[in-house]
Amino acid sequence: MFQALREIEGGISLSLNVAARLPRLRRPPILESFLRQVYFTGVTAATGVVLRATMLGVLIVAVMMDMLDADVDLAVKILLLLVFRELGPLVAAVVVILRTGTAVSAEMAMMRISGQTRALNYLGIDLYDYLVLPRVLGIMLATAALTLYIQFLAVFGGLVLSPFIIEASFTELAGRLFDLFTPVDFIYSIIKSFLFGFGVAAVCCWQGLNPPDLTQNSVPKVVTRAVTQSTLLVLLVNALFAYLVFGILFFGLVKANV
Amino acid sequence: MSALAVHYERKTPQHHVLLSVPQGAVTRAHLPDEEAKAHLVTALLKARGEPDESVELFGVSAAELKPRERARVRARVGAVSPVVGLLYNLNAWENISLPAAYHRTAPLADVAALAREVIVAFGGEPDRFLACVPDELTMLERKVAAFVRLLVAAPELMVFDALEEGLSHTECKCVARFETLYRAHRPAGTVLYVDTREDS
What is the pTM of this model? Predict the structure, then answer.
């Protein structure tokens, strides 16, 4: 219990520290580190998700129309709702946790264990400035970019490849897509992916900088904790966000009809 | 009598370490063991002593320093030491230029010129040297990189911690030139060599 409270307090303090240090991003080594993080999290992950994201869109349309007997309208609507509101940001977050979250937490834990964070301190370099700020901002930006990329691929894949397995043409599907698309879905998913990216980065940095002990054995422990906690945080934020935005903001509190 | 750059005292049941380093002088300190050496170097770099230590830097007691003053004093001290190693995920150039770029203390072109000058002086090939990550450098090259990184800032107190450790006889002669190079950049600087009695 005490450990959990300490971690929540640490996460909040880390978030406030990052916010207060935003102007320092202009310093060359910090900017460079930020760009590296964006490249590693966003660009190098992009190639790995092409096939998976494309098949996701096809799968959604095919399941809706072929197995659940939905019409084009419903299939496209569900494709939009699922991909934009839920799956896009979630898939991007999972990719980021698995690729970047593990790497960041392990790298930071190794730096801590091998005394490199201490060396940075002796050089007068603030750990939040040099290690945390560029990673948190880089991961946030890359998660949002990756979300957009996955959404585009899933929707595009759904529209282009579905006509090969169901009885609907590309123009029919695309026409319905443009009719049903609303900017709210887009804005909603981008804000959510920024939050996911922030949560994942904050948890992984915090865990990496606070290993249970300063031995090599603590690296796998740090990575396991970082992955499980950031996954839980992403699911929690997702549920909270969905409830706040769609439960309260747009439709009022959801009440059961008796 | 000249002013002291360092006055350090540490009493433990095993040892009593007392060290006074005059400003501008070259001093060699042989500490009784690794633990005592680590304590001394850490106290100087942190500008802060443990409860059993008394540290005075440039005539000011470290215990009385406020955080900002402590940061200023720390900026006047540098060490070529295993305690302040190179960052393994950065290449030599990034390691050397990092403090200057972060603190904006010197233009990177000047840092590059200085780095090349020192690397050539030690018989290295600058382009290869600067592109290597620490794991690809020899022990001597790592010490040279750490030294150049410090030389950019040219601190008032330069601590050489176990400088000859892990080096061959020929390489030891090489690192002996660190002091001359440092003096060329800061003629009035203070040099403190520390090692343990077993090393010396």
Answer: 0.86
